[in-house]
Amino acid sequence: MIEFVRAVAWPSVVLIGLYLFYPHVDTILNSFARRADQIDGIKLGSLEINVKASNLPTASKRLAVAISALDKDKIQTLISLSSEINYCGLAGEPSSDDFSRSRQAMLWGIENAALITLVRSAETDNCKAPLTAKLTALGEEAREFIFALIGAQVQGAAVTK
């Protein structure tokens, strides 16, 4: 019984505090939300980052949806692609090789986001089961957006001592 009272006590105090101070907390949060677009810098120790929202590139809804479907590895793969690149050994059934399977899954994930198209290519002596990844127009737009975003972040970053 004592354990139950201990377990319920602190959440109860927090809930009562939120109930009593809700108007003040609401005012503070709304004030912060209204001013969030005016924040142009964050300082954490010796790292100071200055980025104005107006300097950041904006993405269309379609582009935002496509990019948000990508994890870090897929974004790295996307930005490393030229307009077209061939991958040997990836057009066939998933290989027993973990690298090939993960590379296939990564490319299919980028294709599912409509950023590349994957096309089976003609085999050569040096390349069996080749797969060609071609950037779509949306893929080109995504690469340009990501590079612009990185550029804005780098331009706005400053390290102070």
What do you see in this structure?
This protein is of the alpha+beta class. The protein has two domains: 1-38, no CATH class; 54-159, Arc Repressor Mutant, subunit A, CATH 1.10.10. Helices cover 53% and strands 16% of the residues. It is built from five helices and six strands. The protein has a three-stranded antiparallel beta sheet. A three-stranded antiparallel beta sheet has the order 3-5-4. α3 (72-80) crosses α4 (98-112). The longest helix is centred in the N-terminal third of the chain and has 34 residues, at 2-35. The model has no long low-confidence stretch (mean pLDDT 77).
Keywords summarizing the entry:
161 residues; elongated; Arc Repressor Mutant, subunit A; three-stranded antiparallel beta sheet; alpha+beta; 5 helices
